[in-house]
């Protein structure tokens, strides 16, 4: 990466930072309903090499694709149409609006989070950008504030209506821990991830992702409808504050689809609470059951899984070495996460991979997840 940087920008970088991709263990499609989520940062990450360039331009390039962009820091609002570089421009734009001091710099991106995998490559790019720009401009650092700013950039500048989970995990994740985040208050705590003789296996269904954003937004408006209806009966700020029985009580007030969406949200919030207790007590078998239930709820009530993710999860459920498996992230494609006994990992990958190929007609890719820190400053002397 250092050599590539020199080749492109004519001098070595001054610093190298990274921000992580994430896997969400449980708490899916509840972040925008004020729920708790339990993601973990991964060793798959976006690394950035940075050097001040003495101009007023933020110049960006990548190691894996030939795309380049030059963003004029005095006109950051003008780059929404960039094919590559709009996330970076969006982050710079939001930082400027928030009063950060930005200085011209050259930044090379090297991202190992597979694009479109549902492991938050875009959040990793945003958070790495925000951190690099904040550090280069010698601003005080507040990782949570940077995460919120990145979410805003994605919402406003890039037009993707995501919640806060991905950026928050990318910034604040901690090695060996899951991050329990209350999305209503942004209070969080670390839950040690002691998986004993198990590991987390990620399976990417490699489905070309399309329509994800429109379907995502459709779900968001359905749960907003549910909240509007339920607010007539309950004085609550968000859906996550309701218990499953309360949604049951008034189900007839809602169109069936809206009721099912709401039911997913409130039952998923319950599963998060129980999962945290199970993990704290080392009851991995029980945690695995909640993973399975979460997938079923996302399949039946929230309808965001699809044939590919269902095939992966169902092939995992029948494996004796697997304690639980579910889709992770927005859905409609992307990855499943499975809790698998270490000694059975090879058999698991072979069997699930084979079943997937047979059913779907192309390969899935597998990674054994390693849980890492969110933002890292690499030791590097330029
Ligand atoms: C995407 C969004 C997150 C969250 C998940 C679903 O990853 O970016 O904010 O809503 O989907 O849990």
Blueprint of the fold:
Blueprint: H1 2-9, E1 15-24, E2 36-37, E3 39-52, E4 57-62, E5 68-72, H2 86-97, E6 105-111, H3 121-136, H4 143-157, H5 165-172, E7 177-182, E8 188-192, E9 198-204, H6 212-231, H7 244-249, H8 256-280, H9 284-300, H10 306-317, E10 322-328, E11 335-341, H11 345-360, E12 365-369, E13 376-377
Helix pairs in contact: 2-3, 2-4, 3-4, 3-5, 4-5, 6-8, 8-9, 10-11
Bound molecules: alpha-D-galactopyranose (GLA).
Associated small molecules: alpha-D-galactopyranose
- What is the end-to-end distance? 12 Å
Query: According to CATH, what is the topology of the largest domain?
Result: Ribosomal Protein S5, domain 2
* CATH architecture name of the largest domain: 2-Layer Sandwich
The profile of the biggest β sheet is: 6 strands, mixed
List its salient traits.
2 domains, alpha+beta, four-stranded antiparallel β-sheet, 11 helices, about 375 residues, binds alpha-D-galactopyranose
Short description:
By secondary structure, this protein is an alpha+beta fold. It has eleven helices and 13 strands. The strands form three sheets. Strands 5-4-6-3-1-13 form a six-stranded mixed sheet, with helices on both faces. A four-stranded antiparallel sheet has the order 10-11-9-12.
């Amino acid at each position: 990466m250092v050599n590539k940087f020199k080749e492109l920008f004519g001098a070595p970088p001054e610093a190298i930072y990274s921000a992580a991709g994430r896997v969400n263990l449980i708490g899916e499609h509840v972040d925008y309903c004020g729920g708790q989520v339990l993601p973990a940062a991964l060793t798959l990450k976006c690394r950035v090499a940075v050097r001040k360039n003495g101009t007023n331009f933020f110049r960006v390039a990548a190691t894996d694709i030939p795309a380049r962009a030059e963003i004029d820091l005095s006109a950051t609002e003008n780059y929404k149409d960039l094919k590559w570089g709009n996330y970076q421009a969006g982050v710079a734009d939001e930082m400027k609006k928030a009063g950060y001091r930005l200085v011209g710099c050259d930044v090379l991106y090297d991202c190992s989070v597979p694009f479109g995998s549902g492991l938050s490559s875009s959040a990793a790019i945003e958070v790495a950008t925000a951190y690099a720009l904040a550090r280069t401009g010698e601003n005080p650092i507040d990782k949570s504030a940077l995460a919120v700013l990145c979410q805003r950039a994605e919402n406003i500048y890039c037009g993707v209506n995501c919640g806060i989970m991905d950026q928050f995990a990318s910034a604040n994740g901690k090695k060996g821990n899951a991050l329990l985040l209350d999305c209503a208050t942004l209070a969080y705590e670390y839950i040690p991830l002691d998986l004993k003789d198990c590991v987390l296996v990620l399976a990417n269904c490699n489905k070309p992702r399309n329509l994800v954003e429109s379907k995502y937004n459709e779900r968001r408006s359905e749960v907003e409808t549910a909240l509007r209806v339920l607010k007539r009966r309950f004085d609550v700020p968000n859906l996550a504050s309701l218990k499953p029985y309360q949604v049951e009580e008034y189900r007839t007030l809602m169109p069936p689809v809206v009721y099912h969406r709401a039911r997913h949200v409130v039952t998923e919030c319950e599963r998060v609470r129980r999962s945290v207790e199970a993990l704290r007590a080392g009851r991995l078998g029980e945690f695995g059951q909640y993973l399975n239930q979460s997938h079923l709820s996302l399949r039946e009530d929230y309808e965001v899984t699809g044939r590919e993710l269902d095939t992966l999860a169902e092939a995992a459920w029948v494996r004796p070495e697997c304690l639980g498996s579910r889709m992770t992230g927005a859905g409609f494609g992307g990855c499943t996460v499975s809790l698998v006994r270490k000694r059975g990992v090879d058999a698991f990958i072979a069997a699930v991979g084979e079943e997937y190929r047979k059913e779907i007609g192309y390969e899935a890719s597998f990674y054994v997840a390693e849980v890492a820190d969110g933002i890292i400053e690499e030791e590097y002397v330029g």
